[in-house]
Amino acid sequence: MTFSRMEAAMEDAFIEWVNMFPCKSHPIDTIVELADAVILSEILTDIDSKWFKKVTQPEEQPDGWVQRLNNHKLIHKLITRYMEDVLGQDPELLPVIDLTAIAKDAELHQLLLMCQLIIAIAVQSDNNHRYIEMIQSLSQKSQHALMVSIEEVMSHLNGDDQTRFSQLSSTSGTTASRRSVDPRTTMDADRLATEKKQLELAHVQLAQEFEELHDRFVKTMERVEN
């Protein structure tokens, strides 16, 4: 699967967020390192140690993916029960995560879906202030990506079929295609000037979108706290 720019931004943001947890057994450089579910379980126990428990490191052997699968089945089961019993939300409204693809192939998109669930429950947990502050301490790009991620999960839980994730992926892809144009291939000054204006407009629109998204994020967190 080819990642969109928005998905790539989310991957970077989740890596940055995960590495802020002192409870993790080791820092990570890629999302693939979460495929054994060990660090994910460590983060979950940080969120609520009474509800979640750590999983064991799978052995390096041909059928090691089976233990990875069992690890993910366990934490996914606990996450869905936590959403139902503690948060009063219906996990059936969320996209299905292919746990086998994670365990066997460390499939990035599926790992991102799992990360989305974890950060969504983190900002709704009893210690949500701490996790929100962690997000706010990240780079603006990572804050934006994580707020989009949280908003997408909440929109599913609220029965909203509109997913900003896909919309932003499309917008980001358009911006990327514009920037990939090599100015040396044309001497058309008018076209280059028009393209420059389009990029400036896209930058302004993205900045406005970030501010609007941040405001909605704050309001969502206020509703959660109340």
Encode the helix/strand succession as letters: HHHHHHHHH
Estimate the helix proportion, in percent: 55-70%
**Shape category:** globular
Judged by helices, strands and strand pairing, the structural class is mainly alpha
How many structural domains does the protein architecture include? Answer: 1
- The number of distinct helices, counting runs of at least 4 residues, comes to 9
User: Any low-confidence stretches, pLDDT <50, length ≥5?
Assistant: 161-188
CATH topology: Actin-binding Protein, T-fimbrin, domain 1
Beta percentage is under 5%
Oligomer: single chain
Written overview of the protein:
The chain has 226 residues and is an all-alpha fold. The chain has nine helices and no strands. The protein has helices spanning 5-18, 38-47, 64-85, 99-105, 108-122, 128-136, 140-157, 164-179, 189-225. The protein is globular, with a radius of gyration of 19 Å. The termini are far apart.
Structure at a glance:
One of its GO terms (cellular component) is cytoplasm. The chain has 226 residues and is an all-alpha fold.
Give the SSE layout.
Layout: H1 5-18, H2 38-47, H3 64-85, H4 99-105, H5 108-122, H6 128-136, H7 140-157, H8 164-179, H9 189-225
What would the keywords be for this entry?
226 residues, mainly alpha, Actin-binding Protein, T-fimbrin, domain 1, 9 helices
